Structures are given as structure tokens and as C-alpha cells.
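Intended use. Records like the one below are meant for learning the mapping from a protein sequence to its folded structure. Do not use them to infer anything beyond what is encoded.
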Amino acid sequence: MRILHTSDWHLGQHFMGKSREAEHQAFLDWLIEQVTEQSVDALIIAGDIFDTGTPPSYARRLYSRFIVSLQNTPCRQLVVIGGNHDSVATLNESKELLACLNTFVVGGVTSNPEDQVLVLNDSEDKPGAVICAIPFIRPREVLESQAGESGENKQQALQQAIADHYQTIYSEAEKLAGSTLPIIATGHLTTVGGQLTESVREIYIGTLSAFPVSAFPKAHYIALGHLHRPQIVAKQEHIRYSGSPIPLSFDEAGSDKQVMLVDFKKGALHKIESIIVPVFRKLISLKGSLDDIDQQLNVMAEQPEQTTLNPWLEVEVTTETWLHDLQNRVEQLVLAQEALSSHVLLRVRRKREKTPASLTVADRETLAELNVDDVFQQRLQQEELTEEQTAQLSNAFTEILVSLNDQPEPAEPMQKQGEDIR
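Structure written out for the chain above:
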């Protein structure tokens, strides 16, 4: 039995005013080739198929076309779980239709544990493994808030509720697996010790910042999503984040992107291999003084990037001097290099050489140069706090941001008698 594990596609992502459609199409075409060449029996997408709960129409087309194209490969089944960026309703709306195309969709936690368990078939169309398809778990799906609970008690209750849900689904899988079939589990969450990147919106579920590895069931392989760097979790070879297939922020550009190829033999995990995803578009980040940037551009011009799509460029200029025409100066440096004519400058930022003592008008730093986290962190630096206090305030601030971005989906409008809703 051979599966391929991928996650965090973020179809429909709008990156600094630019669409990622071309990169995603290139990746999906490549992935179809890999499924065929590697004779993959089942493909698992561990959450965040889309970048938002209301993806643009082209993102939905990419998703639908991929599923159709998969029918012409050796792949017997596709398993899709919802992530924190996905809308449960959006994924589930085509669930019954996609089931006719051997696609098993679990957009969110269900009341019936059997809805999250599936037998996967091998190349001979015989049972080869059982999967516990567990999506991103929203607190309201597994836990009722109790008045008067302390923060610590809430954290413990939520961790236990998530662990209990995993065990419930795993117990259902054991009934189907017996003693002969391996069990695979999925998840879309942050684990203790996971490496984050700039593009990851940290998941703080209530007051739970990360899920302990010891709380996972004893599955043969655990396919995780949410963190964009491919990684082994807590030195447990069978617990993996596949990572995002394309860099979703500039700080992800320095590491290889992967999908995971997992083999099972005689009811046990046999081998795990990573397949490097090609770089379809290079994201380049340059840092230093204007002179440093100029030198780096000269080096780049002598060694032009060989990628299918035009490279995107970010420049961070280190200076204590306020330059009202900084954007124009950097643009002129790039334009001066004829060999870099295909490069697109997406962002210019200023970084001061010394840490500011306070947020003052004298710093002349505009809000256009800052994001919400930058403002909060700079304000935090003004206070004399212990490490524990800083961590608590940072966690609380992140919880507020997540609660604002993760509002419950609006209910479907009720149909009045005799009214035709189209």
C-alpha cells in the first residue's frame, strides 16, 4: 500500500497583490505526474486546500480539475480534510458528488465517528489501510465552555477533548483494521515543538497553543497539516508535516518544499520518502544597506534564476535615515540590472539599525510599513516584563487575532413556504 501525503495548498492565495494561480497550476500538474510515476494508491491532503473560506472561482476550478485529472492515474482514493483556512460548508457542499470520483471529504468534525473513518484500497483493489480522517478541530465542535473555569483548567479540558476525539475515531478504525491493516491518522494543528514560518497563522484553540505528541493515538503514520515547513515531529519518524508545496512567504523560500511518499507492507509502516517539489517561481529576499543591496543585485545579475515563472523580490533596507523616496531608489537599483528585467519587486521595507526605545513620531515609521504583529511587538518592548509575562501577553494577543479571523460561518437563510431560493 502506497500513499502520498501533502497539505497546505492555499489555493486562491493573494500574495502582496499577486495571484498564485500559475504556481498552483504548475504544482498540481507536477503532482499528477508524481502520482502516476510513483504508482500511488491513495492521496491525502491534510487541510488548507483553500486560502480562505470563500475561495475565488479559479481556485475552485483548480481543485475540481485536479480531482478529475486524478481519475486517469493509478490513485484509488483521494482523502481531503478541512484546515483552519477552509470553510466546512464550502468543502462539504460537493462531498456527495466527489464521492462518485473516489474522493472522501471531511470538512469538519462530525457527530458520527464512522463518518471520519475509511478503508483505503491498494493497487489490487483490496483493503490496504484504514484512515482516521481528522480535520482541524474547532473548540465548539468538541467542548462546551464551563463558567468559572480557570485558564489552566480550560487548557487541560480542551486538550483532553481533542485527545478523546482522536481516540474515539481511532477506536472505530481499529474495528475495521483488525490485526492486519495499518492505521493512518490525519490532523491539522500545531504540535509541541513545531517550527513556524511567517505565513502560518498560529492556531491557539481556546488557550491551547500546541497539542502534545503523546496525546496522539498509536497510528502507524500520522499525516499532519498547518505548519508550512516539512518536518518530523518530536523525533517520531511516523509523525510528519508535509509542509506547503510552494513558499507562502519570503521566509519559506530558503528551504525545500516536499510531499511525503509512505509505503506499508504486511500491516506495518515500511518506508517514508520525501519528494522535493520543483521551484516554479523563485522568491528572493535581499537585506542590508542600499550599497549592500546594489552589490547583491549585481551578483544576481551575473547568475540569473532559471525558473518557469518570473521571480518575485523583497528588499529590506537597513538604515537609520528616513528616506522618503526609498521605494523609488530600490526600484532604480533593480531596473539598472538589465539581466533582472524579469524580476518583480513586490515589497520594500526599512529596518532601523538600532532597536527603537519607543514608538514616536520622530521614528517616522508609517503604518504602511508595519503589520498588526509589528505594532504589538514594538509596544511590548516598551514595558519591563518577565519572559513569562511576555509569553502570556503574546498568546492572549494571538488568541484575539484568531478569534477575529475565525468567526462562525453565517447560517443558511431559511426558505419561506412557497419561496424558490436560487
